[in-house]
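Final report, closing paragraph on structural work. Over the funding period we assembled a curated collection of sequence-structure pairs, and we close with a single example.
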Amino acid sequence: MQELKALITERSALVKVKSQLISKKDDQNKFLPSNISMFLKKNNEKIEQELEEAINNIEVRILKVIKSDEKLKENYEIAISVPGIGPATAAVLIACTNNFNRFKNDKQLGCYSGVVPFQRSSGAYKGKNKVSPKANKQLKTLLHLGAVSVLNSKIYSVNSTTEKQVKEKQNVSYQ
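Its predicted structure, as stored:
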């Protein structure tokens, strides 16, 4: 489990550096003269390729670690079968929860991951519902992005289903 956590931490750091390079490249194109921008772009392309290769190597190693343990492999397969949960999210979820053994129930996991708000109250005072500031922000982000991707795909399929139902109702003649 320690190796898995170390690999995930390293992958997260490399992904962050890569995204910084990409956003910096966009800024350079907008604000620097074209000759300087082209030089920096060529220089940074090598770094981006190396980062991409390093990220891919780490992902391969993460899968190797997961597949080497039967329980990890089984939980990983279950996790990626959930819509919106991909390989990266599943690996982080397994590492953060010690293969789903860290928490006694789903409420504790939800609180830890920062997706379950709870009310702050004291006596007669009833505060707003908020998530814990101690939540695992990486896990919260990955779960949120997965949920958004599922919602976006479901909206598309719901709209297309609704259109089909409307057309079917229009084709039915009442006699």
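The mean pLDDT is 85. The first helix runs from residue 2 to 31. We thank the funder for supporting this effort.
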